[in-house]
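fyi for ur records
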Amino acid sequence: MNFAHPARLVTLFLLSLTLLAGCASQPKPEPTPVVEDHSAATQAIDAASAAIANAKSLGALWRDTEKFLGQAKKALAAGDDESAISLANKARFQADEGVNQYYLEMAKPLLSKLRGYSNLTAAQQAALDKGAIAVANAEGKTAYDLLSTLKAELDAANIQYTVIKGDSLWSISGKAEIYNNPYQWPLIYKANSDKIKDADLIYPGQDFSIDRNPSAAEVDAAVNHAKTRGAWSLGEVEESDRHYLGGLKIR
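which gave:
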């Protein structure tokens, strides 16, 4: 039987004590703190707040929308992110729907008015068709943007015409760059009634504003008046002209 040398045993014993002492003296690692991530809930609440502010600015905020936002904030404070996100999304949906409905109600009368315009270009007609589709699909903001832009373009289409010697409302209306139809002369008369005292008497140098995109109803009324006006005389405002000026609304 082999036995270790006594001195060697002592050395091994002392080494073991050193190792044990070293292990006991090492500090225990600190536990990693758990950081809860509430970013998704916070972002949902921020988005809802922005949507509500937009709806408020238009007077289109639904009555209980802010209530859901308040509940979402309480849920976040309680650590219930799932409920906070759900409530915030509900508030945002309501705010967005309020805004959409606001613009849809603005777009509908615009569409009706624009459908009455004549002489639209192909591009203008395409914009009108897109606006009509957006209204049908209840896409309020899209519809309003398309139709209001088109209306502004048509309103800006007025041109200025300076009367020259020999002109009459009949001859001006018949020019290709104006209406290409002399029977539409009452349109010029109507648009410039503050400058024209007698439709049969205009003067060189007068500047007239001419709407290049009158509605179909305005054209029909003008042509009908031109064809049924009756007898006329220079220097006098005919009764039929007075009736025409009072019976057709200006846009």
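The chain has ten helices and two strands. thats all i got for now
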